[in-house]
Design a protein that fits this description.
Blueprint (H helix, E strand, L loop, with lengths): L20 H12 L4 H8 L3 H9 L1 H6 L15 H19 L6 H18 L4 H5 L6 H11 L10 H23 L6 E3 L1 E6 L8 H8 L9 E6 L3 H10 L6 E5 L20 E5 L5 H4 L6 H23 L4 H8 L2 H14 L2 H6 L20 H12 L6 H10 L6 H25 L7 H21 L1 H6 L5
Parallel strand pairs: 1-4, 4-5
Antiparallel strand pairs: 2-3
Helix pairs in contact: 2-3, 5-6, 5-19, 13-15, 13-17, 13-18
Length: about 475
């Protein structure tokens, strides 16, 4: 086909060719300055229909960022996809810390959810409106390659892999117990969980007011807890009960638990043997996931509401004043300690019913006592809060709910802030002498002694934290 020709007003005929993106932008600029389509067509030697076609896609052309001389706009990757992938990495990291299964389908579904949430808040442009994000297999493979994520199950593998791996490990675990002659007092389990330590049921006026505040950041009140007994306490327990100085610690297979964790234990704790659950079996076998963690969170909620009730009765503070200005992380740590100490032996033992049923009496297969929820509701209503049993169950569930896009954004911002602070402090740390771990332990012990002294010497202040007046 012979090349097309372009004729510019006041010039001789020239070889016609497909207009470049630069030329299209020039045409659009002249049109937006008020030049008529017919005049533009005459100047560039084009038909009015060609000019109209260019103008119909003016937003897409104006947004195009292409190399000089390009004549077509290739599909560009919108910036929103970069943001989706950043938040998706935060989400995957959180799931892996929990030891949860993450499949390709699981990740793709979450990516679509994040995309739709971000799209609602992103100014609409023609490029974005024309773009369709499908979280396809091709996208997933590129995302996996770019980020280096691992421990991801393929489509359709999760259910069979979980069940088969769990059944196999139950037999392996039984063999370990028999060969090492472990008794149930020598076997321990640890697990992480998220806790929104400053959170009340959604229907309460305090929660409604907090959500209405500008700059409300839901992630700032989220903690990650590791629930377990630690090595010194285990050693003391074994010696006190005249048990052989050896124990088994069971962990889930999460990136936060390095395979060589035994090497991090000090020599005096080399009696601890560490074993890991197979990947993707946490929901099926992890003892802490069998109502132990959920019961702990109910006990924390009870302790939280008891604290609020005591404050409103024993001081001049209103519930709103205490919650907004005085309830802090130190209060929270005391409540966590209180709640964890109330988790019963029966509850802890029942958590092993799927992995080690031989060690669980039949009576311990029962669930959590329902009266704890009733106590929380009673305390709430005594403070004028409209709370029922369903609200409490919902609150406990929300501690383990999937992180929303907004929460992921706040978590990402916090991580970036912490990273920047760490990098800026690296120079300051150079040349400083490292504090020995023995000194740190000594200071922690003294802090514990100080707390004990305050609680014994000033019981009223230690209980509520505030004086009447």
């Amino acid at each position: 086909m012979a090349p097309k020709k372009i004729k510019k007003a006041g010039s001789s005929a020239v070889i016609r060719q497909r207009p470049t993106i630069e030329l299209k932008k020039e045409i659009i600029a002249k049109y937006e300055r008020g030049m008529r389509v017919s005049d533009i067509a005459r100047e560039y030697g084009m038909s009015k229909s060609t000019i109209s076609t260019i103008l119909k896609k003016k937003e897409q052309v104006k947004e195009a960022n292409v190399s000089k001389g390009m004549t077509i706009i290739t599909k560009q990757r919108p910036q929103i996809i970069d943001e989706v992938e950043k938040l998706l990495l935060v989400y995957i990291n959180e799931k892996q810390l929990e030891g949860a299964s993450i499949s390709e389908a699981f990740i793709s579904e979450k990516a679509l959810q994040i995309y739709e949430d971000l799209k609602k808040k992103t100014p609409q442009t023609s490029a974005l409106s024309d773009f369709v994000f499908k979280a396809s297999r091709g996208w997933f493979e590129k995302f996996k390659h770019r980020t280096g994520i691992h421990s991801v199950i393929r489509h359709g593998e999760a259910a069979s892999s979980d069940k088969a791996g769990a059944e196999k490990f139950i037999l392996e675990f039984k063999k370990i117990i028999e060969e090492e002659s472990y008794v149930l007092q020598q076997v321990f389990n640890a697990d992480e969980t998220g806790l929104f330590w400053k959170k009340m049921p959604n229907k309460t006026y305090i929660t409604k007011e907090e959500k209405a505040l500008p700059g409300h950041k839901p992630m700032k009140d989220r903690l990650t807890l590791l629930l377990c007994v630690f090595a010194p306490a285990v050693k003391e327990y074994l010696e006190k009960n005249n048990l052989p100085l050896k124990c088994l610690l069971l962990l889930d297979n999460a990136p936060a638990h390095p395979p060589n964790i035994d090497e991090y234990l000090e020599e005096e704790f080399d009696f601890i043997q560490v074993r890991y659950l197979p990947p993707n079996t946490t929901p099926l076998l992890q003892p802490m996931d069998q109502q132990v963690i959920s019961n702990f969170k109910k006990l924390y909620t009870k302790a939280l509401f008891r604290k609020c009730f005591d404050i409103t009765n024993d001081t001049n503070l209103t519930l709103k004043e205490f919650w907004k200005n005085h309830f802090n992380i130190l209060n929270c740590v005391h409540l966590i300690d209180n709640a964890w100490n109330q988790v019963t032996y029966r509850n802890m033992n029942a958590g092993w019913r799927k992995l080690w049923p031989d060690c669980v009496p039949e009576r311990d297969f029962e669930g959590f006592e329902p009266e704890i929820v009733d106590e929380i509701v009673s305390l709430s209503q005594s403070m004028g809060l409209e709370v029922d049993n369903n609200d409490v169950e919902e609150l406990v569930e929300e501690h383990s709910n999937e992180l929303t896009t907004e929460e992921l954004q706040h978590l990402q911002a916090e991580q970036e802030k912490n990273l920047a602070e760490d990098m800026s402090s690296e120079g300051e740390e150079e040349g400083k002498e490292e504090v020995p771990s023995s000194v740190i332990k000594e200071m922690c012990a003294k802090w514990g002694e100080l707390q004990l002294f305050v609680e014994k010497s000033f019981p009223n202040s230690a209980t509520s934290g505030y004086n009447k007046g």
